[in-house]
Amino acid sequence: MPRNGLSLWHARRADRRPLIRGLIVFVVCTALCLPAAALPIGVYRNHENNSGKIALTFDDGPHPRYTGQILDILDEYGVRATFFFVGENVSYYPEAARDVARRGHEIGNHTYTHPSAVKTGEQELRQELQACERIIQSVTDTSPKLFRPPEGSWNERVLAVAREQDYSIILWDIDTLDWAHTPAERISSYVLDNTQGGNIILMHDYQSGGCDTMQALRLFIPELLARGYKFVTVSELLGSQ
Ligand SMILES: [Zn+2]
Questions:
Q1: Would you say the C-alpha torsion 159, 162, 167, 173 has a positive or negative sign?
Q2: What are phi and psi of 47, to 5 degrees?
Q3: N or C: where does the chain have the smaller number of CB atoms within 10 Å of the terminal CB?
Q4: CA angle, residues 44, 142, 135, in degrees to nearest 5
Q5: Distances 209 to 131, 175, 179, 205, 239 between C-alpha atoms, Å
Q6: Which of 63, 114, 204, 212 is flagged as catalytic?
Q7: What's the pTM?
Q8: Do strands 53-59 and 82-85 pair parallel, antiparallel, or not at all (unpaired)?
Q9: CA 109 to ligand 1 center in whole angstroms
Q10: For the segment 18-66, what is each residue's pLDDT rounded down to a tens digit?
Q11: How far does CA 136 lie from the centroid of its chain?
């Protein structure tokens, strides 16, 4: 009897295998096929269904040397981008900040001192946004309306402060990891493999040590232009400008 019971159990377990396999396939397929979790209004990581447009973004600047070098490359290809400034760096390098505005690029707010937004108190975060906005306005004569929280970390509280200050939160869907000194060829092939239109690409114009960002731009910008993509600012990508 126990033996029969065991056999029965084995038989049942064997019967269940296709079912379990089917279930696993179903779960994996569903996860792969479903769009990424919907973001609340006012938070963007790309622009869905946007044929052929891409937004290049540069964080943490302005930098006294790298920002200008990036601007020269963008000019060379007739490409416009969005720079998320750290207010403190605008105060150190105002001429580089002015140059970004003068050459027709969009400027966004990346806080004044680059703290983690989720670890910063509400009032402090408000002050970070306002101080960065003030210096961007006084130096470049433009008013930022896009906020990129440092490291892309945000929550409902951060969103509430951003909304109150009339900012949209801008994340990204292609992370080049250029800040980690990823080789230019790897950055370029990653961008080329993942661009489909409507993408927001994350790069950095303020880095310590060597910087492969410029070399990577020279590799993937001409290729994406040849494929028919158009580079626009984030506001243009999202259709608000
Ligand atoms: Zn940053």
A1: negative
A2: -125, 110
A3: N
A4: 95
A5: 28, 19, 10, 12, 36
A6: 204
A7: 0.85
A8: parallel
A9: 10
A10: 555 555 555 444 444 444 568 999 999 999 876 799 999 999 999 999 9
A11: 20
Residue with tokens 């600012």: 233
Phi and psi angles of residue 230, each rounded to the nearest 5 degrees, phi first: -120, 130
Q: Name the residue among 166, 181, 173, 236 with its Cα closest to residue 214.
A: 181
Residue 110 annotated among the catalytic residues of the structure = no
Q: How many CA atoms lie within 13 A of 64 on its CB side?
A: 5
The C-alpha atoms of residue 83 and residue 122 are separated, in whole angstroms, by: 24
Q: How far apart are CA 109 and CA 233, in angstroms?
A: 14
Q: How far is the CA of 103 from the centre of ligand 1 (A)?
A: 22
Going from the Cα of 227 to the center of ligand 1, the distance in angstroms, rounded, reads: 30
Torsion of CA 61, 66, 70, 73, to 10 degrees: 170
Would you say how long the chain is, in residues?
241
